[in-house]
Give the backbone structure.
Amino acid sequence: MIKECETKVKTELTQYDTPIHRALEEQRLNRLAHFDVPGHKGGRGNKELREFLGAECMKLDMNSMKPLDNLCHPVSVIKDAQELAAQAFGADEAFFIVNGTTAAVQAMIMSTTEAGDKIIMPRNVHRSAINALVVNGAIPVYINPGVNKKLGIPLGMSVESVKQAIRENPDARAILVNNPTYYGICSDLKSIVELAHERGMLVLVDEAHGTHFYFNDRMPISAMAAGADMSAVSMHKTGGSLTQSSILLTKNTVNADYVRQIINLTQTTSASYLLLSSLDIARKNMSLNGQVLIDKAIEFANYARDEINKLGGYYAYGEELIDGDMIFDFDTTKLSVHTRDIGLAGIEVYDFLRDEFGIQIEFGDIGNILAIISGGDRNLEIERLISALSEVKRLHEKDKTGMFDHEYITPVVVMGPQKAFYSYKVSLPIAESDGKICGEFVMCYPPGIPILAPGEMITTEIIKYIEYAREKGCILTGTQDMNVENINVVDTAI
Amino acid sequence: MELWYTDQHTKDVRFSMKIEQQIASCESEFQRIDILKSCEFGKVLVLDGELMITQKDEFIYHEMISHVPMAVHPNVKNVLVIGAGDGGTIRELTKYDTIERIDMVEIDKMVTDMCLEHFQETSCKLSDKRVHMYFEESLRYVRMKNDEYDLIIVDCADPYGPAEGLFTREFYGNCFKALHEDGILINQHESPYYSEHSRTVQKAHNHIKLVFPYSTVYQCHIPSYPSGHWLFGFASKKYDPINDLNEEAWNKLGIKTRYYNTDLHKGSFYLPTYVKELLGTNE
């Protein structure tokens, strides 16, 4: 018998390969006798769940083992899959994340700053960014994003304001850029990267809403292409993977091994292979079909914008907003619609669409709604959305006087987020908290951008805004008080 | 050799007919279209494997969807027909000289082309001067219309394919807007019998009820359709389907029908108890 020799040459992997997917499939066909977790043992131990999710799905829910590699210390199939992802995104390293893009954003901040370090960021960041500051004690230097007066939405950061922040804080370690914003607005990423690198600062990009930028040539520039050092791409948002799966991209300007250590501080040691394989297959899909899929999304969104603007009253905005500064570019797959001129808050339109027409959109805030359009959409649903908006207007249009016209209130930061969060605090009714220092978060979810963050001064304007958002039906979150009626404020008497 | 065509009525119920030959088959942008010649039902139009109409009993469907509103509304001049690619509903409507214009909006031009060629029994009046055909998405078409029609007839397939959007509240609302202040909306309303479909009936009825001040359903018997028991929706801004029925005027027109008559008109609105319960109108 000829001894099987270990001559297996590792063939060059291409974007057609899906290493995790393939290894998982192999193990499923091997029909292993499982004496490891998960204890449902291929679904046999939980029949109701198996019937609900499907037997195949349950069988694929396996734990880390030698042939499947380990996310905490990838040496084989996960390593290969991450390398393919890095290649697809034009990064030097890619880390698969199973704790949501929240974990990716926090890993960026925590691997580039330490307690007391300064980090420059726009105030309209996602809560995950400020959460990271509460955990690691870095100090935010906020840049006010511009505000579009008509739409009331926060914009990107102007190059001028970044320049000023850098000049005033030459000791800052990094700049975090939110690109694109939820509404699809992009900053001049390339110039910001140049400015930051000149002064030795790293550029971190929260690219949660821009995964598709990497796979279509009609999209704004991506973080990696613009030369940013790290980026958190929410593969599950517009990249087609399962909810909660995400990717952290890095360039070799940061120490990838250190980044992995930071990720491992908080990431699970039982990473779900359903999530990991979905990242693998979604990467392949975007690499091979992204151009076509995203082209389709662009066509749908452009068509819907035209049709919605024909209805009158609504303003579905697009590339015409581009001003080369605070709206340096616009993501045309985002269908953002301003609703205030028909006398309805975005959140009211959002609720009508779901409750009366069975249409679920991404979010509604004070003056706008946002519908996510992807290559998975069909003409039929696009027509339904437009027709339903026409009905919402016909049936519910109101006088717009007395409506709030802005989404962004410039915060007054009086204390670092970590210090405020861990201070001795007292609970007060929100209405009576004027002039106090906030000790926790208050936000509408979605979009999850804090109205108040720990360490910020509570003002009459903010209290009014919170009450208005509540009255219009926004879901308020963040405070210890589940009813968001009381707020913890820093007890300055101590 | 025997050739049989089977229409899947529910996941557990099938309806089969012996086929003499397949007349035509093609794949459009939206669906697969087949025209068969059956031994018992004559020609049969099949979309994505589902039976749409048969030569033998299509008159029941097309008469009931057209003549009921025409006998109630005293002055129909402008009609919008949604779907209806086979032309049967148009054929019935062209029997009325008082109608000035019929707009037909069908998503799939290939259905109409195939019927013009192979199903002339239904498509024979599509060339009438009053008929204007538009091949586009009907949700979009109706959305642009405001106070233009006396009657809208939704003659579509079931809601599990391209016609899905025609069973939504936004579509009914857009129809309301497109109708004059005394307009009527008639829609194909599925069968109440099998539980797989009865939820569709219930949902569609609830949607229409929220949009139109008057809304009810009427029934007929179509042998080749699932359960044979078929419903149409009658929604209206002003007219009551029984109180405003003008029997004398309609009978004076001398329109030839094989199923519809004004006695049956009244009777068709009296529903079985289980259907009333399904619609929540069992007082």
